[in-house]
Amino acid sequence: MKKEIPYKIYLEESEMPKAWLNLRAFMDKKPAPLLDGETLKPITLEKLSNVFCEELARQELDDESKFIEIPEEVRNFYKMYRPAPLVRAYCLEKALDTPAKIYYKFEGNNTSGSHKLNSAIAQAYYAKKQGLKGVTTETGAGQWGTALSMACSYFGLDCKVFMVKCSYEQKPFRREVMRTYGADVTPSPSMTTEVGKKINEEFPGTTGSLGCAISEAVEAATSRDGYRYVLGSVLNQVLLHQSVIGLETKTALDKYGVKADIIIGCAGGGSNLGGLIAPFMVEKMQGVRDYQIIAVEPSSCPTLTRGVYAYDYCDTGKVCPLAKMYTLGSGYIPAASHAGGLRYHGMTTTLSELKDQGLMEARSVLQTEVFKTAQTFARVEGILPAPESAHAIKVAVDEALKCKETGEEKTIVFGLTGTGYFDMMSYQKFNDGVMKDYVPTDEEIEKAIAKLPKF
Amino acid sequence: MKKEIPYKIYLEESEMPKAWLNLRAFMDKKPAPLLDGETLKPITLEKLSNVFCEELARQELDDESKFIEIPEEVRNFYKMYRPAPLVRAYCLEKALDTPAKIYYKFEGNNTSGSHKLNSAIAQAYYAKKQGLKGVTTETGAGQWGTALSMACSYFGLDCKVFMVKCSYEQKPFRREVMRTYGADVTPSPSMTTEVGKKINEEFPGTTGSLGCAISEAVEAATSRDGYRYVLGSVLNQVLLHQSVIGLETKTALDKYGVKADIIIGCAGGGSNLGGLIAPFMVEKMQGVRDYQIIAVEPSSCPTLTRGVYAYDYCDTGKVCPLAKMYTLGSGYIPAASHAGGLRYHGMTTTLSELKDQGLMEARSVLQTEVFKTAQTFARVEGILPAPESAHAIKVAVDEALKCKETGEEKTIVFGLTGTGYFDMMSYQKFNDGVMKDYVPTDEEIEKAIAKLPKF
What we know:
homodimer; Rossmann fold; seven-stranded mixed β-sheet; alpha/beta; 18 helices
């Protein structure tokens, strides 16, 4: 007899993963290597270690180790806010009147408000272990900066966050959370770095950009002793750490004998989606089970659905290595949509390669549709989702409604990456009926892609 | 052999309480009855039912039923965000280097951000069952209004919230959460009620008060068909519903064979504390175990520590019944401290009577000390607490440090009622070093108490 499924499945501490899953190691055809921007050859561990902590640089380049042990100190921190619940969306199913079974992995029940903490604590741990004084990073909307502040505070590391100036001014609450955790938050562009000074001189009164904040954070790390730069998405190491999401999800489903049919996640740089799908993708590649895997992106930044698969710079400032990925070009400036975490021009190499191999599909959705779904979800499931997360909900609902048409009882699993408590200005726009949609024209996309580096 | 205690104890769905515990029914000497403001006699069910839903009015007056069944619909809603975890504060213990064992019941993992949802959903359920169209209420800081909006949205009830005007303007995010859940949020004083119009005429440009918002909400309920007024604290019915906090806590402790020594909670109107201590107080009154029970209040509103035990009005507008309680007088205006939920001039009758009988003690704490503790807690336990909740943390830490002095291994349990995500302006004041403390002088207290009604 099948066990009755509770509203929320919480694993026991003893069931939590003890190793991260390195998805690339399971791929027959691996993602293309990162290239050194100066030599255009695969980047070396040595060079990467100037910017990143050594162990993280090693993880970044490792596509052989299938599993990498989670250090005990990190597992202890995980125990403070994990396991994250796998929720059976009984109320949503009822509201949609669908025969589909819907589950979501909820990563929002921690002070950073999202899954970002999973990698932040790992990166802080390795920085501490290396004997560093601190780390630097950039943050836009502020989720990553918050997560890193918490992680650094736990390990007693200095944390320097360059926050895009307009966010610094418009989102003072996120800034204050970081300060409460002892982080040093600087509006970017600042006068504390050479690159910041230069940009301020060139563009007086600028409110900054993520590209500029990255450049400042990298300079702040490489120009002083005992510091390294850390990043919350796109990188292989981040996907590795985020596999804890998928591993817990799979264990919880297995525990109740549930077989998923569709796995859905939102995709900005790919950190959450890459982590969520990891163990399912392994089974798919090994022919164990044929999951339908869907990446959801905003129509305003349609990297996977309308970009090209090519080598490109990971950052606007071109200080990071080049990656082969689906991209709209590192100069592409997406419209100011309300899902700040999904405004990245590229996509992590692993997901790009999986998409190229036809193992993963992608859809783009309009933000007004996303907020409409978010509102429904909040009302029936009691959780107010982050705009980013609501992209996944939108497609989960679409798929559940298809099941209603066909009568199929598919099992849908999606990632609910975070809460929207710090996004109420966006909800206000929606509540006031003044939110707009953005879909770039073909010309705009072509123009952006034409600027890709040529090799 | 004792089971190892995990970081977080989550009960199984089957272990969740099926009935609320009615603490008053276990008391030999009951709290004094509510008095009708017009007759000064104990208020009747009939009269109370004009303002409150019938079943809730019944619960309000019931000091006989020891347990009251939780309706299945309410239990199903509880399953969406409950059981709340009982957390073993391993990291805090380590940071304090104390032999004490510290546990906290965390009620913040839901979109309303606090324990208020436990009663909101029950009150909405009874309103729906009575066939009402909607309910009205007031909200200051916004936690109760948010919880009620969520509950009403779930049951398809209209929800009219009168929000103190200065909060409406200064806390737009809470307002937007309520609107996202479909609530009608009106800044108070408004021009939609007679009392509102009158106040606006008398005091042009006023930014409102909780007392005024209560009066408007009561008028809005009683002046239209199919509406009743609901309230988030102070009332007996609210304590009843909140007993789910204490019952889950007790079950979780029992499951692991843990015996608590000290139970601590913050106290504004008393809703959280009354719920948390319920099953422990029963054991204490029955001589099963002698728990030390501590109510914590802000030094700026020292109801239990410096007030008198007497009949007083529950609201500034004097529209509600009179209650015998610890009070500073319904005209007492506490300093604008950062724990808006603890700025009530009185205390629920049950807790007042328990204090008077010597079964519960009370302490008042300075808000700068509270925020200092909140910051430490956020850093070591990863949860950013609401300023209200942090009052309980402060005393828990004090007690744990006493254990360090004496070497005693006491088990301390406190209620972490909610998160501080919407309180970052207060944290900012603390981070900037400009937060002040308020302690009323003896003269101020005497002057306020002198205005109590005389019978």
